[in-house]
Amino acid sequence: MEVFDIVIIGAGPAGSTAAWHLSGQGLKIALLDKKSFPRDKVCGDALSGNTIFELKKLEDKGLDLSFFEVTENAYPVDGWSFFSPKGHRLDLFLPNEQKITEGKLKYPGFVSKRFDFDHFLLTPLRKTANIVVFENCEVKQIDFHNDKVKIICADRDLEAKLVLGADGANSILARKLWREKIDRAHYSAGLRQYFRNVKFEREKQLIELHFLPEILPGYFWIFPMADNVANVGIGMLSSEIEKRSINLKAVMKDIIQHHPKVSSRFHKAEALESPKGFGLPLGSRKSQVSGDRFLLVGDAASLIDPFTGEGIGFAMKSGRLAAHFILSKWGYHDFHNNQEYDEMLWKKIGGDILTAYRIQKLLRFPWLFDWVVKKANSSPSIWNLLNRMVWYPSERQNLSNPLFYFKVFRKS
Prior knowledge:
Layout: E1 2-3, E2 6-9, H1 13-22, E3 29-32, E4 46-47, H2 49-60, E5 75-77, E6 79-83, E7 89-93, E8 109-111, H3 114-122, E9 131-134, E10 139-144, E11 149-153, E12 157-160, E13 162-165, H4 172-177, E14 187-196, E15 206-210, E16 219-224, E17 229-237, H5 238-243, H6 248-258, E18 270-271, E19 276-281, E20 290-291, E21 294-296, H7 312-329, H8 339-362, H9 366-378, H10 380-391, H11 393-396, H12 402-411
Helix pairs in contact: 1-7, 2-7, 7-8, 9-10
């Protein structure tokens, strides 16, 4: 039996970020994952402004961000392109006052394969004094006792005072709380497929979200990457897939081959793999994220943005917040009751996620999306208003306020 203060299950962005923030504090930490890194992780691969913010926090902890100077690993993008249900395009860019002109993170976002990005976050932790990394270590069983937790893997047994569940959508710890059965109203299904030679129509490289009528309240995406590769995919609310008996692979194939606004982009494209599926537990409901001697972070805590499907930034933020909670309590808190962690996490993240959920529900009115995009393209003041809402989460709540649309109408 190997004894630790904390065991982190899952070495993706949430788990690795928590380990980074717990490092150098005198605690003995085990960071384990069922896979060996580098490994593929089916994802959209987009690193948004939330992720950039968390990476700067890790730079302060000693993470070398030169990874972002090598475009083969992290491809820089200038902003977002939103395509309304009728195909109207709205390009949004980071406001000038927030642009980074020095350092390694000179762009508002990047696209990086999780194969590369997750390995980049984990690699330095292998050499960190108080952290032991176990790969190919799948958790088979967890036993909770009054004063400790036993974690049983295929080839070793571990013991800890506290466990962090960073093990994703199928978290063994989340199942202990509430995720025995998927709630399709708060879950999205996604497909990813890498292509080479997809045609991009603008000089600036932009992350593209196509809100096509047939897949609302979801979207089809095209994200540019290095070496003329693109991450192409589709995400849709699971309840709608079930309700409308949708074959997501067939819909994605039809969009690529026949959609009048999209198919011409793929005439010379080469598929590099078959479509790969993944599940996204959305943060559209306030779920319990802690239990007796354990905390949940990232996808295990259902912290995926219900509107954009972005999860890496919230995963890293939750890892940081969990680490800060632990350090603030260590030595005098027994971690049997961690309700304070739930309250703190939802206070820090819940507002942004709730706003995203309200925006997602507005996608049930595609005419409204079309109307706002058209107005933004014809009015600089409305474009600036929307642009700030995308880059500043604190202002995004206006999108779910009916008064916002009244203001847009008055400006038009």
